TrEMBL record, chain A:
Pfam families: Fer4_7 (PF12838). It is a peripheral membrane protein. This is NADH-quinone oxidoreductase subunit I. The gene is nuoI. The lineage of its organism: Bacteria, Bacillati, Bacillota, Clostridia, Eubacteriales. It catalyses: a quinone + NADH + 5 H(+)(in) = a quinol + NAD(+) + 4 H(+)(out).
Automatic annotation (TrEMBL), chain B:
GO terms for biological process: aerobic respiration. This is NADH-quinone oxidoreductase subunit H. NDH-1 shuttles electrons from NADH, via FMN and iron-sulfur (Fe-S) centers, to quinones in the respiratory chain. The immediate electron acceptor for the enzyme in this species is believed to be ubiquinone. Couples the redox reaction to proton translocation (for every two electrons transferred, four hydrogen ions are translocated across the cytoplasmic membrane), and thus conserves the redox energy in a proton gradient. This subunit may bind ubiquinone. It comes from Desulfosporosinus acididurans. GO terms for molecular function: NADH dehydrogenase activity; oxidoreductase activity, acting on NAD(P)H, quinone or similar compound as acceptor; quinone binding. GO terms for cellular component: plasma membrane.
UniProtKB/TrEMBL annotation, chain C:
InterPro entries: NADH_UbQ/plastoQ_OxRdtase_su6, Nuo/plastoQ_OxRdtase_6_NuoJ. It holds the Pfam family Oxidored_q3. This is NADH-quinone oxidoreductase subunit J. It catalyses: a quinone + NADH + 5 H(+)(in) = a quinol + NAD(+) + 4 H(+)(out). It comes from Desulfosporosinus acididurans. The keyword rRNA-binding does not apply. GO terms for molecular function: NADH dehydrogenase (ubiquinone) activity; oxidoreductase activity; quinone binding. Its main location: membrane. Belongs to the complex I subunit 6 family. The keyword 4Fe-4S does not apply. It is a multi-pass membrane protein.
TrEMBL record, chain D:
Belongs to the complex I 49 kDa subunit family. NDH-1 is composed of 14 different subunits. Subunits NuoB, C, D, E, F, and G constitute the peripheral sector of the complex. One of its GO terms (molecular function) is quinone binding. It comes from the Bacteria. It comes from Desulfosporosinus acididurans. It is an enzyme of class 7 (translocase). This is NADH-quinone oxidoreductase subunit D. One of its GO terms (cellular component) is plasma membrane. The keyword Transmembrane does not apply. It holds the Pfam family Complex1_49kDa. The keyword Oxidoreductase applies.
Length: 137, 351, 167, 367
């Protein structure tokens, strides 16, 4: 009969109208992201051996690092910059990192007002506390 | 209860009493201005509040919480909306027909406000107790087509013009079943006066005598107020916003005001024609019953809106001319037959 | 009071009517027509013919939108701001209009039965009396008008749709 | 179509129009409300992905493949990594194959749900939209839990997948599959069974079988026109030949069938997912692949059944670490050409429905 579908639809919406709501109240209640979420990068400079693998694997030339040799002819990280505005957050760099110095973190509120602020100085950022990512990153 | 029932009537009588001659020109003028302001306030507050309720409803239906920032559970959001709309820039594009562009939203609001004049919110609580109440309502609301067309044509936008054309086609078509569906009630009561029609429903609301007419009225009323599933005029998905595409800020706000004002007016007419107006169980004052019944009709309209999808424009026309119109004519015929039989039998039974 | 309102709306109606003929934009002309009809509706109210006023709004003003649609549809080809060109024979038009007006005025003024009721119909509102008149004294013209309109409707449908051949 | 005396009215819909699903632009020629012609204009989202592939190594290009059809990320990368594996002759571990099937089918379900959602939104069905997206969220949560991102997963690697799934993945997937019939019932109740929606979609925008074949339409659009053709059956890739599923076909050729067949395909995907969940073995998830991927000189063409149509990857290798040429055949790009072919004579409202039923994703059309 014509109208059956209409009444069924009305019944569904009425059921949902009285049902619970699924909204996440975001700024008040922060979402609990799974440990593998790729939402920003974190670096532990003491672990970094400046091998440059991350620079090479990055598909978008996001990472830019310089190093200098210390007394023992060992390379020491000097600067480590990421142009996060170009970053795809694909995670290839963290997978290639042999020492686990570069990690993905779950800090997801990355919006900034100016484009220049997207040029992250990872060493400076590491001084601030970053929530570290899960075991594999 | 009686005092509560007549509180507004008594206030009006008191204000009249302040004048030496309670029916002088100045007394009438004062009362009329007060009533006008009251109606305007009712319309503005109802429209603003409805725009919030609509969003809340839409979100509840889809299991979300809706606006939830301002006030308890976001129930003060409409104030923020009003302030935002007042503060926005009034943009008008190049090459619009400036006069028509500017006057169209004002005209629409004015027409809606005019329609509010005959709505009896309670016993004796009607701004103008016209003999022709319901006919006046229909006559006035028929002009709103013109305002929508003005907006659509003056905007100098192709989407707007399409919207304006759709407004003409749709609203003129649906006016006919709307009018005819009300005719049954008028035949029974033999009057156009809304207050008398409500008085006649003291024993039984006309929805029980005229269920088909109520259904037709509700459908045609939804179509007249341009709400889904009949919101061809501002079909977002095809013609962006129809006649409102180029409007911004307060002018757009006026359109929304008129839309929700129309919703309230249409529901109020439905309540007074079919649902027994201010009559209800005695524990609440009459005007509260009236308002609660309006909310019931608005709830149905919103429920339909957030469940159904939009009809196609040619199906819409078919629906009006091939289904609703014959049905409403049949309803008139049946009503006439019923009245005849009633008059034939009642004297013999001894009623 | 009534006189002031009368003059305001009478002047409005006449000015709008002159706007209809002088406006160069045909859509504006149509909207002026709506304004003129509305002004006339107010005049009806002043003459205590409120039913007629409502009908005037419903039928005449409401239907102007259709005219606007036709105006837009017929003239979108060119520049719409110059879509209602002046007619060179406007003198003749004015002459005939004035003649027509004079004849109507003469008929109205000499007809002794023409009067404005001091108040609205008392028995049961103007609608009731009018319907009684329509269904008793003017039954035949009323029915004839109804038949005529039906025929016109059918004719319009046939003209628009066309008749299927071989049937 | 043009009647003497009325003017053709051309309206520019898009690239910023509510119903063009991204940045599609069409110039619509109208006679009143009736569409006389449509000229699709594409390229507003052109990112040069094929050229980008030539300047990146094989591994580096994997994250970009998700961005083709961003509503069904996994399936795009599946096509790419399988093409490279075919070129190099890499054997993928069993568990990785099963995980690939699970993710690809989940991506298909997500894409189809979104298609139904946006299709209903295009005829003003706001509530069906939010029901469909509500359930799609659960799939995206599964993705995020495993791969780290919700839409652009970058989960598949040449030789396997990036990591194994976490422990809570399988129960969550199972409960999602268990809830699926109820969801489908709900979509049917509110959208497909609704008479107004049916009147909007049934016998609108007919794409006859011959025309569909001549225009090389693929995917669900083809199957809704009565052709039983699915790459998963016709030329099974990966381990699709191990699963028992049907290829739904509808013969209505109209907009309704093009929407409805997605619902049927979701049910078929559910079958595949259940079988995969039952049969998935333990084991490694990535094969032993050389660190530097350097295929021998040669070329490969590999095709997969994307939710939007048949997707083909043509990769030419010149023996270096970067491909010499990559050509992507995307279903949506080819499917665009059915729009002008079937839309003539319908109203502008139907244009929107027909456009929605084609299920275009501009990332795939413009590449």
């Amino acid at each position: 009969m014509f109208g059956n579908g209409l009444i069924k639809g009305l019944r569904i919406t009425l059921k949902r109208f009285y049902g619970p709501n699924l909204t996440e109240y975001y700024p008040e209640v922060k979402p609990n992201l799974p440990p593998r979420t790729r939402s920003s990068m974190a670096l532990e400079p003491e672990k970094c051996i400046s091998c440059g693998l991350c620079v090479n694997i990055c598909p978008n030339q996001v990472i830019n690092l310089t190093s200098e040799k210390d007394g023992n002819n060992k390379r020491v990280l000097k600067t480590y910059h990421m142009n996060i505005g170009r970053c795809l957050l694909c995670g290839l760099c963290t997978q290639s990192c042999p020492t686990g110095a570069l990690r993905l973190s779950q800090e997801f509120e990355n919006a900034v007002y100016h484009r220049e602020e997207l040029l992250w100085d990872m060493i400076a950022r590491s001084k601030r506390s970053n929530k570290p990512s899960g075991e594999e990153g | 209860m009686d005092a509560l029932n007549n509180v507004f009537v008594n206030i009006a009588a008191y204000i009249r009493g302040l004048f030496a001659d309670s029916h002088s020109l100045s007394a009438d003028l004062t009362i009329n201005i007060i009533v006008f302001l009251m109606l305007f306030l009712i319309m503005v507050v109802a429209a603003l509040f409805l725009s919030l309720v609509e969003r809340k409803f839409a979100h509840w239906v889809s299991q979300r919480s809706g606006p939830n920032r301002l006030g308890p559970h976001g129930w003060f959001q409409f104030i923020a909306d009003a302030v935002k709309m007042l503060g926005k820039e009034d943009i008008y594009p190049a090459n619009v027909d400036l006069f028509l562009f500017k006057i169209a939203p004002m005209m629409l609001v004015g027409i809606t406000l005019m329609a509010f004049g005959v709505i009896p919110f309670g016993k004796g609580m009607v701004a103008i107790n016209l003999d022709l109440g319901i006919f006046y309502f229909l006559a006035v609301s028929s002009i709103s087509t013109l305002a929508l067309l003005m907006a659509g044509w003056a905007s100098n936008n192709k989407f707007s013009l399409l919207g304006g054309f759709r407004a003409v086609a749709q609203m003129i078509s649906y006016e006919i079943p709307l009018l005819f569906s009300l005719l049954g009630v008028i035949m029974i009561t033999q009057t156009f006066n809304l207050s008398s029609i409500i008085e006649a429903q003291k024993t039984i609301p006309f929805i029980f005598l005229q269920p088909l007419a109520f259904l037709i009225y509700l459908i045609a009323g939804i179509a007249e107020t341009n709400r889904a599933p009949f919101d061809q005029v501002q079909g977002e998905q095809e013609i962006v916003a129809g006649p409102f595409t180029e409007y911004s800020g307060l002018r757009w706000g006026l359109f929304m005001l008129a839309e929700y004002g129309n919703v309230v007016a249409t529901s109020a007419i439905a309540v007074s024609m079919f649902l027994g107006g201010w009559y209800g169980p005695g524990f609440l004052p009459g005007w509260l019953w009236f308002i609660l019944k309006i909310w019931l009709v608005i709830f149905i309209m919103m429920w339909v809106r957030w469940t159904f999808v939009r009809m196609r424009v040619d199906h819409l026309m078919h629906f009006a001319w091939k289904i609703l119109l014959p049905l409403s004519l049949a309803n008139i015929f049946l009503t006439g037959l019923g009245i005849y039989i009633y008059q034939l039998f009642i004297p013999r039974i001894g009623g | 009071m009534g006189t002031i309102v009368f003059f305001i709306f009478a002047i409005l109606a006449i000015a709008a009517a002159s706007g209809v003929v002088t406006s160069r934009n045909i859509v504006h002309s149509a909207f002026y027509l709506a304004l003129s009809f509305s002004g006339v509706a107010v005049l009806y109210v002043l003459m205590n013919a409120d039913f007629l006023a409502a009908v005037q709004l419903l039928v005449y003003t409401g239907a102007v939108s259709i005219m606007v649609v036709f105006a837009v549809m017929l003239t979108l080809r060119g520049e719409v701001s110059d879509s209602n060109p002046e007619n060179r024979k406007w003198g003749w038009g004015a002459f005939i209009s004035v003649l027509l007006f004079a004849v109507i005025a003469l008929v109205v003024l000499t007809n002794s039965d023409w009067r404005v009721l001091p108040s609205a119909w008392t028995s049961g509102g103007s609608a009731e009396d009018m319907s009684l008149l329509l269904l008793s004294q003017f039954m035949i013209p009323f029915e004839a008008a109804a038949v005529l309109l039906t025929v016109a409707l059918a004719g319009a449908v046939i003209l628009a749709k066309g008749v299927k051949e071989n049937q | 179509m043009i009647i003497d005396g009325t003017q053709e009215y051309s309206v520019n819909m898009g690239p910023q129009h509510p119903s063009t699903h991204g940045v599609f632009r069409m110039v619509v020629h109208l006679d009143g409300e009736v569409v006389t012609n449509v000229e699709p204009k594409i390229g507003y989202l052109h990112r040069g992905l094929e050229k980008m592939a030539e300047s990146r190594t094989y591994n580096q290009f994997v994250p970009y493949t998700d961005r083709l059809d961003y509503l069904a990320g996994p399936h795009n990368s599946l096509g790419y990594v399988q093409a490279v594996e075919k070129l190099m002759g890499i054997e993928v571990p069993e568990r990785a194959e099963y995980l690939r099937v699970i993710f690809a089918e989940l991506g298909r379900v997500a894409s189809h749900l979104f298609m139904i959602a946006s299709g209903s939104l295009d005829i003003c069905g706001w509530t069906p939209w939010s029901y469909c997206t509500r359930d799609r969220e659960r799939i995206l949560d599964l993705f995020e839990m495993t791969a780290g991102n919700r839409m652009t997963l970058n989960y598949f690697r040449i030789g396997g997948v990036s990591h194994d799934v976490p422990d809570e993945f399988m129960p969550a997937l199972k409960s999602f599959l268990d809830d699926m019939p109820e969801m489908i019932e709900e979509y049917y109740g509110i959208f497909f069974g609704n008479e107004i929606a049916q009147s909007r979609m049934k016998s609108v925008g007919i794409l006859p079988k011959e025309l569909a074949e001549n225009l090389l339409i693929t995917g669900a659009n083809l199957r809704a026109s009565g052709v039983q053709y699915d790459v998963r059956k016709a030329e099974p890739y990966g381990i699709y030949n191990r699963f028992n599923f049907n290829v739904p076909v509808l013969y209505g050729c109209d907009t309704y069938d093009r929407h409805f067949i997605r619902l049927l395909e979701i049910q078929e995907s559910r079958k595949i997912l259940q079988q995969a969940l039952r049969d998935i073995p333990e084991g490694p998830v990535v094969a032993k692949v050389p660190k530097v991927i350097k295929p021998q000189v040669g070329k490969v063409y590999h095709r997969v059944e994307n939710p939007k149509g048949e997707m083909g990857w043509y990769i030419v290798s010149n023996g270096t670490t970067k491909p010499a040429r990559v050509r992507i055949r995307t279903g949506a790009f080819v499917n665009v050409q059915m729009l002008p072919a079937i839309v003539t004579g319908w109203k502008i409202q139907d244009l929107v429905t027909i456009f929605a039923s084609m299920d275009l994703v501009l990332g795939e059309v413009d590449k």
